[in-house]
Amino acid sequence: MVSPRFLVVDDHPLFLEALKHVIHGAYPAAFTVEAASLDAAREALKDEGQFDVVLLDLSMPGTSGLDGVLEFRARYPKLPIVIVSALEDPRIIHEVMSLGAAGFISKSTRGADLAHAIRNVLAGSVVLPIGYRPPQESGTGESPSDLNSRLTLLTPQQVRVLQMLRHGMLNKQIAHELGVGETTVKAHVSEILRKLKVSSRTQAVIEVARIDFDSIVAEVHGDESGRA
To answer: Given Cys at both, which of 47, 110, 113, 154 links 158, Cβ 3.0 to 4.6 Å?
Structure first.
């Protein structure tokens, strides 16, 4: 068997060492690269080539919410990303999995169980905390049709920006793609959040993941003679 390659993204030295110890206990010849920030993780992915799995902490310097997950899923869609976090709220786990993570491992997991979870990920299985149950709908949330109604408030340009947010693009990248300034992009993002009634770009992406957003984009591009 070829030695597996791990990218471990965590800024807590003690946990990082513990995680590496578990990995090498399960796979003595494993190749591991450490990254204490998302910038370092980006460099590792650029310089070290293909990894078999990324073990990513949610609470990292230089990011907020689920932005790190969104970015890595967009840039490396085939790379298994497993969240290893102390944040065990079922709603967070549910959102992480809805974004395409290969699993979620709690930092409170015992070493033997952590090693077992890592083996399962490499075997292609999805791993979740024991006893995890998806959060129940509260009954007060809005239906997909309500969300569709809010999306109709977006201008064609704002729909384009939202589509790029879904792909994990940064404001600078969106500005370059659209040929506008970053200030204009920030204004569009603010309006998108206001119209969708969410507080962050991550929440906006999670919301539109509930519906067939691509068909809405097609409709907008098919009728751009209206709003600008």
So the answer is: 154
